[in-house]
Amino acid sequence: MNFRRCLFSGVLLQGVGLSLLAQTDKPNIVVIMTDQQRADLCGREGFPMEITPYVDALARQNAWFDKAYTVMPASSPARCSMFTGRFPSATHVRTNHNVRDIYYAKDLITVLKENHYKTALVGKNHAYLNAKDMDFWSEYSHWGKNKPVTEGELAVSKFFKEAVGQYLEPSPIPLKDQQPTRIVDQAIEWIDSQKDNPFFVWVSFPEPHNPYQVCEPYYSMFSPDKLPAVKTSRQDAIKKGSKYQILGELEDASCPDLEKDLPRLRGNYMGMIRLIDDQIQRLVENLKEKGLFEKTIIVVLSDHGDFCGEYGLIRKGAGLSEALTRIPMVWAGYQIKQQPKAIDAHVSLADLFPTFCTAIGDTIPIGVQGRSLWPMLTGKEYPKEEFSSVVVQLGFGGEDVPLDDKLTFEQEGALDRKKVAGFDELNTWTQSGTSRMVRMGDWKLVMNSYGKGELYNLKKDPYEVNNLFGNSKYINQQSELLTKLLAWELRLQDPLPVPRHRYHFKRNLYNYHFSND
């Protein structure tokens, strides 16, 4: 009710004579999000197979980041942060089970509606949004389309419910009925229906998230004999700590042939990424054909990553490794300056909302913690110090929970013995406690609430198996990163509610903390 009253007042202030020209001067926005896609599996970062040829070309012709990070490697916390510009510690959404606890002053959808945008979701939600929040809503999940109607939709839903964990054979779901294809079909159809107002559409693929199923020809493109070998194993998981070991025990309990099946699962995962790349091509090229590309901000990214065999594990859950925290991020279209090499800046999923605010000429709302990327995306000056580091959060709090005989995987709900690969990696053990990571240059520091740390030189040790924390040789780097992490923790204290009287809450136009001075 308050939102409607606020919107109505805004319309009155604008006046009933607001011209359509004034409305359509603003850029359209298309957010293309995958679920659980690793950043390093792409040609632009040196992956030796053609897994993302179209998005690679799009990146080099526009702008992209190789140091883009999620806010937390879990779907709901990440997606809620994208729409609010706030980190999980501020949104209160620290697990997939806290969506109803979302806390913010104004979000992206509110700002877009105030600016007369038509809005749509086509694909996976897993945030706090509802159908009533958007002008168009067509939701999909890992179990098929919500409220399936057609024969194809019903067949997909039935298949996914039977193949909950993983599917090792070529998928019986043909390309035309695969979810990325259907999602792009609907997104194009909805975009075609937009005439006068600027539009925002969230094209949200539920893949390449498990059950790691993919149809031909993608299944054979990435057969196990063609894949580069993983660089780590379960022995390295032991070095990574108890949460990794607990996740390994859970996976082995649910997937007794996991070690043997890993190559095929990796191939399926990569095949689905290639399928998605082809569908992204279809969507973006359609925008170009309609003359909309130069009028539309397009961003391609993911909510978080996937182990994809690293440390002998699949999915996600334990820790803050680069495989889970670093995400692909490509910007294209409206006013984006071509920058063939990756922009040298550490950026976050929380930066999307403030970036869109700047791009459409609106102010960044109070309570937003992300920073606008618009100056750097358009070739303008920006303070380098502002983007010299980035943080990622993990944990719902309390003490770490060890593997305790008093609580079994089955009792907790993390393991369904009736289904192969029927396990929940985001569980009491892997998500307990509190951890933070900070990335700066070639270095990365992870700290937990017990004072235990991890320090890695990512240039020399990209898979994070040689923990240098406490090594006197690297005490300067450790100290610098600890200082940076503390500064971030202070900066990310929730500013809401701001003081009601007297005190002036000072903010930069782009939500920067540092300046060029």
Features:
globular; Alkaline Phosphatase, subunit A; 8-stranded mixed β-sheet; 517 residues; 4-stranded antiparallel β-sheet; alpha/beta
| CATH topology assignment of the domain at 26-232 and 257-382 | Alkaline Phosphatase, subunit A
What Rg is obtained from the alpha carbons, in whole angstroms? 22 Å
- Number of beta strands: 14
The CATH architecture of the domain at 26-232 and 257-382 would be 3-Layer(aba) Sandwich
- Strand order, largest beta sheet: 2-9-8-1-7-4-5-6
Helix/strand structural class: alpha/beta
- What multimeric state do the chains show? single chain
Mean pLDDT: 93
Termini separation: 44 Å
Spans of at least 5 consecutive residues with low confidence: 1-23
Q: What is the CATH H-level superfamily of the domain at 26-232 and 257-382? A: Alkaline Phosphatase, subunit A
Shape descriptor reads: globular
CATH level 1 class label of the domain at 26-232 and 257-382? Alpha Beta
Largest sheet: 8 strands, mixed
Describe this structure in words.
The chain has 18 helices and 14 strands. The chain is globular, with a radius of gyration of 22 Å. It has a domain at 26-232 and 257-382: Alkaline Phosphatase, subunit A (3-Layer(aba) Sandwich), CATH 3.40.720. A hairpin with a 2-residue loop joins strand 12 and strand 13. It has helices spanning 2-14, 20-24, 53-61, 75-84, 88-91, 108-114, 151-162, 179-192, 218-221, 234-240, 242-254, 258-289, 322-325, 352-359, 374-377, 409-412, 428-431, 475-491, and strands spanning 28-35, 63-65, 68-69, 118-123, 136-141, 144-145, 199-208, 296-302, 329-333, 347-348, 390-397, 433-440, 443-448, 453-457. Belongs to the sulfatase family. InterPro entries: Alkaline_phosphatase_core_sf, Sulfatase, Sulfatase_N. Pfam families: Sulfatase. The modification 3-oxoalanine (Ser) is found at residue 75.
